[in-house]
Amino acid sequence: MIDKFLLCAASALLLISGPASGQHAARPNDAQIAHIAYTAGQLDLDAGKQALSKSHNRAVRSFAETMVRDHGAVNEQALALVKKLGVTPQDNATSDALTKQAKEKAGELSKLSGNAFDRAYIQNEVAFHRTVNGALKTTLIPAAHNAELKSLLETGLALFEEHQKHAEQLETKLR
Question: Which end of the chain has fewer CB atoms < 10 Å from its terminal CB, N or C?
């Protein structure tokens, strides 16, 4: 079953990639890319914190700890880079839509407990990582002009692909 969050997140990320036709849609600039990437990281960090406050499952808690640690570290690197480059991340429709949908999902998850929470949290993590990783590959990395930003996004993608695999393995175990 396709989750509402996945559909909304995919729609938000499609805003930055434009139409699939041969037309050249407006690509996000580096300041917008930085904001989208930071926002996605912060949202997953927040979801991890929510899981740590609600879950009693050792595997789910370990995964959530990894999300908090890794996304926090990547976001620290992103903040240091934008400061070094003198770039002010630009709020945009994509980051706004991601934030709105994450708040809605956090509200839904807050009503769950036990195994129901664990399954819903991990399903959301799988969907979120698939969507964000896809956007990194197809839109954000190709659109980045600054070499250091592009490198940070590529490093993040490698890490986040591992997160996706881990979440998919957990999802299978929690069924």
Answer: N
